Amino acid sequence: MSLTSLSLSLSLANQSGFTSKNIVMAVACVLVGLVVVGVGGFLYYKYRDYKKKISSLQNALHAMTADLDDAQQTTMIKNLKAELEAERARLAGQLREVETKREENKSMLQAVKQKIREATFDRREDLLREKEQLLNAQWKLDETKKNNEGQMLFIEKQLEPIDIRLSRVNSGKKDV
Predict the structure, then answer these.
(1) Is position 72 within any domain?
(2) What is the pLDDT of residues 79-116, one digit of tens each?
(3) Which of 18, 88, 146, 168 could form a disulfide with 13 if both were Cys (CB 3.0 to 4.6 A apart)?
(4) Ramachandran region of residue 74, left (φ > 0), alpha (ψ -120 to 50) or beta?
(5) Domain encompassing residue 153
(6) Per residue in 51-74, pLDDT tens?
(7) Long-range pairs, 167-170, Cβ under 8 A, ≥24
(8) Prediction pTM value
């Protein structure tokens, strides 16, 4: 650029009301504007990246919470299964005990029936009362056996879905 063109530009700037101060101020404003836009764009992209990271962390947290819930449910189910199996074992023991008492009662009843056939008239009344008590005891033992078997059946029905659920968890499948 020649000096004449520069002086011509300055004279045009002076005529249009622009001074060199105004030009410098305008250039500074443009530069500040560009810096602000650049920083704004940078912050926008950083915000978007952080938003993606936060979203992925929230998803991971949700998955871990779901896994924790599944683990807690599995633990609760295993505890329930252990309690049901302990109750089933207790009932099985009671059933064996009831069966033993029933056999004893049955043999005692047979012995009393035999004594009744052989007894004299005055002794028969005592033996008949004893037979009645043994029959009542037999009835109570039968009822106890029936109740215990019903409870065991109920426990078996409760254990079926628990076993299915635990086998699915152990094989890595989820319940639907």
Answers:
(1) yes
(2) 988 998 999 999 999 999 999 999 999 999 999 989 88
(3) 18
(4) alpha
(5) 3-170
(6) 787 777 777 777 776 776 777 888
(7) 169/70, 169/74
(8) 0.57
